[in-house]
Amino acid sequence: MPLLRTNYKPSIIFKSGFISTVYSGLIRHLKIKQVRERIYLSDGDFLDLDWSYSNISTKKVAIILHGMEGNAQRPYVSGVARYLNLNHYDAICVNFRGCSGAKNNKFFSFHSGQSNDLAEVIDHVLEKYSYKFIYLKGISLGGNIVLKYLGETLAIPTQIKAAMAVSTPVDIASSSKELHKFKNYLFHIYFMIGLKFKLKQKQLQFPNKISRLSLWRIWTLRSFDELYTSRANGFKNAADYYDKSNSLQFLPKINIPVLILNALNDSFLTETCYPYIIAEENPFIHLETPKYGGHVGFILPGKVYYNELRAVEFFQNSNKFL
Q1: DSSP assignment, residue 295?
Q2: Nearest-CA neighbor of 172 among 235, 121, 241, 110?
Q3: 163 vs 3 pLDDT, higher one
Q4: Are the beta carbons of 125 and 61 closer than 8 angstroms?
Q5: Exposed/middle/buried for 207, CB within 10 Å: 0-12, 13-18, 19+?
Q6: How far is CA 83 from the centre of its chain?
Q7: Interatomic CA distance for residues 294 and 289, integer angstroms
Q8: How far apart are CA 62 and CA 42, in angstroms?
Q9: CA distance 88 to 149
Q10: 267-307 pLDDT, tens digit each
Q11: pLDDT band for position 156 (50/70/90)?
Q12: C-alpha closest to that of 78 among 19, 137, 135
């Protein structure tokens, strides 16, 4: 599928990737009514799902996955849900393990390749509800999970009609290196504050699995993945975790319509996170790379952002791409 032309034209101030990223992630505020459902996973852990609903009965539901150190109440997540609700989709905003405000039961929490949890959410929806049309939307880390799930799963449920990934680091290893550069210093600190706080809670919860000394050795995202994420989730090391979890390798196998929206001024992404060749070769991959947008920015005047508009447009027209 050829590279898609983009219609995203922000105001002058939001042409800055940094301002766009910060405003969307930390300053934007939205109100949305959500109802929480807790589901229990096959390994004995749980996930909290925050539902919001269309004002009319519908057979369409969207499952939305947040990014690193996010949750279902973040405006970049709830904004998507709100606009989908207005267009007659129910929405499920998934809180990853340990991200809903409640400690999860296992030593490990969430990671970039945890597609098995998404599969269990989908199974739960199929077993308990009667939706005929299921759509997936992942943001940043959540986008990598969505793409990995679609490319590695041999039998995608027929109810899943389309998906969208926004600001997605499809090459996790290169994106991780980018996050360690000086231009992303403030973002790096922000992520580490949240991750270290959660890891301290894990140390109190599982003192025999991680020592206080180990906590002091973790000061960067790379060391966090080397000493905790990889070991807690059964990988050899951080490199092995990145190699097996990145979605880039699974993109050629995707066989339902997918829109990847990655801004060219996203400071978290590298050249390999814009899979032009794969998009040209796989008719199901639609790649849109606007010049502006930052990381999960895509700000427009009013209450609706560009990535939210594109989700509804793409989902509504996805049958044309089959």
Answers
A1: T
A2: 241
A3: 163
A4: yes
A5: exposed
A6: 17
A7: 11
A8: 23
A9: 25
A10: 999 999 999 999 999 999 999 999 999 999 999 998 899 99
A11: very high
A12: 137
Place 26 in a pLDDT band, splitting at 50, 70 and 90: confident
Q: What are the tens digits of pLDDT across the range 28-71? A: 988 899 999 999 999 999 999 999 999 999 999 999 999 998 99
Q: Which helix (H) or strand (E) holds 174?
A: helix 172-179
Tell me if 164 sits within 8 A of 145, measured CB to CB: no
3-state percent helix, strand, coil for the chain, nearest multiple of 5: 45, 15, 40
Residue corresponding to tokens 């060391």: 223
pLDDT for position 179: 95
Listing DSSP states for 91-103 in one string gives EEEEEPTT-SSS-
Q: What is the pLDDT of residue 318?
A: 85
Give residue for tokens 């000061």.
219
pLDDT tens per residue, range 4-15:
889 999 999 999
| Number of Cβ within a 10 Å radius of residue 66 | 27
- Point out which residues pair with 48 in neighbouring strands: 38, 95
Angle (nearest 5°) at CA 147 between 173 and 317: 140
| Residue from 250, 234, 243, 235 nearest 284 by CA | 250
Residue 241 and residue 111 in contact, taking contact as beta carbons nearer than 8 Å? yes
Per-residue three-class SS string for 213-252: HHHHHCCCHHHHHHHHHHHHCCCCCHHHHHHHHCCHHHHH
Return the axis-axis angle of helices 238-245 and 172-179, rounded to nearest 10°. 130
- Global confidence as pTM: 0.96
Residues 57 and 53: their CA atoms lie apart, in Å, by 9
